[in-house]
Amino acid sequence: MILIALALAATQAAPTPAPLEIEIVRDAITDRARATATLRGDGERIVIRCEAPNWGDIDVSYHSRRWLERGNILTGQHPITIRFDDGRPQRRLWHVRDRAANFDDRGRAISFLRALMTARRLVLRTRDVENRTFDSVFEIGESTPAIVALLRTCGSRRVNPRIIGER
Prior knowledge:
- By secondary structure, the chain is α+β, with helices and mostly antiparallel strands.
- Helices cover 23% and strands 37% of the residues.
- The chain has helices spanning 2-11, 106-118, 144-154, 160-163; strands at residues 21-26, 33-41, 44-51, 59-63, 77-84, 90-97, 100-102, 121-127, 133-139.
- The N and C termini lie far apart (60 Å).
- The model has no long low-confidence stretch (mean pLDDT 85).
């Protein structure tokens, strides 16, 4: 029986990655738009947000199940290593607070989104508060339509051309 179950499991296709979930909301009174795209993996998530009053300010944040190692005492920044597909690992500074980390630089956010649109897998490596290294793996799937919809909702002339090539 065990051999039959193993043979059946080996012949089944690998599960398809979950798509980037997007939510677009308009305020009932002011009609200001807010968009959020979420990528989930193993209980952790990457969240991309923008809001119409802050045209062009895109927030990329990583939310972990674990408490993250604190950032620099003055800046709050901490390096997290990221790797898209089989590309070269890159250490990027993220602003860390408790179990979340986000880019506080528009250039880093734009670079991250451009890579996310073409990649199929993302791995983040960081440390928890007990100084243990751990990885967070995200199977990306098709992310371009969600990111384009997010940017068309509340992107700007400063950001959109650099990510999706439109003005």
